[in-house]
Amino acid sequence: MAHIDQYATEDATLASAREAGRQADAGPVSAASGAALRFLAAAIGARAVVEVGTGCGSSGIWLLRGMRSDAILTSVDVEAEYQEIARDAYRKAGFAANRTRLIRGRALEVLPRLTDAAYDMVFVDAVHTEYPAYLVEALRLLRPGGIVVFNNVLAATPMIDGPLHVPDPGTAAIRETERLVREDEALIPLLLPVGEGLLAAIRADAPEQD
Ligand SMILES: C[S@@+](CC[C@H](N)C(=O)[O-])C[C@H]1O[C@@H](n2cnc3c(N)ncnc32)[C@H](O)[C@@H]1O
């Protein structure tokens, strides 16, 4: 695991964004998770990405670095102060202001206002107990072939399991999201043990009619 974590490297811009996020207690993604997000965004040539949980901008910079040069990141957070720090971080990372659309508000109030099937990727990094509800919104927002990615699935999931172990509500919600993703035949799931752990799924194309 340490090998994976050390393989991804941050430049000075990302290191400073992560430090700002750490100091603000905004839980910035690790370099390993960020590198995976950049990879996935680049692999699908993402033009439009929704992020749930802007924080101070670390994951946004990684995503923008993988997205196409004309792509737009829409990022939602309840904390205006975090989003101001993120805005500054994007600017320092060289992204024009029109590459990001920061929306302040509760994700479950903002996401329903975004357009159906208009996004290539949804990255979720906010309230664990809301992960199952974010999944419902993400599946509506994604175009066929789009990818949803949930952060923190390993950090929040205890390794101890069994009938006597009662997980906290956040962990229970993450487990429920893992199950929903695995059992949805319209999704191609993958658990990636990088950084804090990423649960990813591709929204498959609709099956062809006979
Ligand atoms: C782990 S941090 C995100 C870190 C960010 N992705 C990064 O890499 O810098 C979680 C974020 O979710 C935000 N948040 C908390 N409740 C929320 C809600 N109901 N809707 C949207 N964002 C929320 C917090 O303000 C915080 O910035």
CATH superfamily, called what? Vaccinia Virus protein VP39
Compute the number of helices: 8
Sheet with most strands: strand arrangement:
3-2-1-4-5-7-6
Poorly predicted segments: none
> How would you classify the helix and strand content by structural class?
alpha/beta
CATH second-level architecture: 3-Layer(aba) Sandwich
Q: What sort of overall outline do the alpha carbons produce when their principal axes are compared?
A: globular
For the termini, the CA-CA separation is 46 Å
Order of helices and strands: HHHEHEHEHEHEHEE
Major beta sheet summary: 7 strands, mixed
Indicate how many domains the architecture comprises.
Answer: 1
Radius of gyration: 16 Å
Binned, the helix content reads: 25-40%
CATH topology term: Rossmann fold
Strand content bin: 15-25%
Say which molecules are bound, naming each kind only once.
Answer: S-adenosylmethionine
Compute the number of strand runs: 7
Task: Explain what this protein looks like in three dimensions.
The chain is of the alpha/beta class and 210 residues long. The protein has a single domain (2-203), classed as Vaccinia Virus protein VP39 (Rossmann fold, 3-Layer(aba) Sandwich), CATH 3.40.50. The chain is 40% helix and 21% strand. It is built from eight helices and seven strands, in the order αααβαβαβαβαβαββ. Strands 3-2-1-4-5-7-6 form a seven-stranded mixed beta sheet, with helices on both faces. β2 (72-77), α5 (80-92) and β3 (100-104) form a beta-alpha-beta unit. α2 (12-23) packs antiparallel against α5 (80-92) and α3 runs parallel beside α4 (58-66). It is globular. The N and C termini lie far apart (46 Å).
